[in-house]
Specification:
Layout lengths: L2 H14 L4 E2 L3 E3 L3 E4 L5 H8 L6 H16 L6 E2 L4 E3 L3 E3 L5 E4 H9 L3 E4 L9 E5 L2 E6 L2 E2 L8 E3 L8
Antiparallel strand pairs: 1-2, 2-3, 3-10, 4-8, 5-6, 5-12, 6-7, 7-11, 8-9, 9-10
């Protein structure tokens, strides 16, 4: 595992330090729930050493199953961050919700794409996709919880090769 891979793995372990719930197929930390087969070898080796809990299956029933069913009913919209709030929350528009930058960075580095599944529901989780396949959800956070919320536009520099 290279330096970048080591950093990504360290971050993954930090995500799970306080709250790890998993069964044979699913994993959650309370901020996301994901199919374990969408993770890499090193993440799964780490998880194999941790305890299992049937609550992960219940979470699947309550959160993910609805998203899997609704993904075929609605047109997904790719989540593209346009604003950063207080340095650690990303938002695609000026609203009361966003996602933690640390999760966005980790999932996109690992090749996941994030989509809004139900744009009409403000607090609906984002869908996680890998290789165009639905593999889980990322829960949003409430931007209104942050004092003096300022939406700072994110500028993307396009560099021609």
């Amino acid at each position: 595992m290279g330096k970048l891979g080591g950093q990504i793995m360290k971050q993954f372990i930090e995500f799970l330090e306080d709250n790890l719930i998993q069964n044979d197929d699913w994993l959650t930390n309370g901020h996301f729930i994901i199919k374990k087969d969408a993770l890499g070898i090193y993440e799964n080796k780490f998880l194999a050493k941790q305890s299992h809990d049937k609550r992960a299956g219940e979470l699947y029933q309550n959160i993910v199953k609805d998203r899997e069913l609704s993904e075929h009913k609605t047109k997904d919209k790719k989540f593209i961050p346009k604003y950063i709030i207080d340095g650690d929350i990303l938002a695609s528009e000026k609203s009361n919700i966003g996602i933690k930058k640390v999760y966005y960075d980790w999932f996109t580095k690992k090749g996941f794409e994030l989509y809004t599944i139900n744009p009409e529901k403000e607090y609906d989780p984002l869908g996680l996709y890998k290789n165009s396949k639905f593999v889980g959800v990322l829960l949003p956070c409430n931007v209104a919880d942050y004092e003096d919320t300022q939406y700072i536009p994110i500028t993307y520099l396009l560099i021609a090769k």
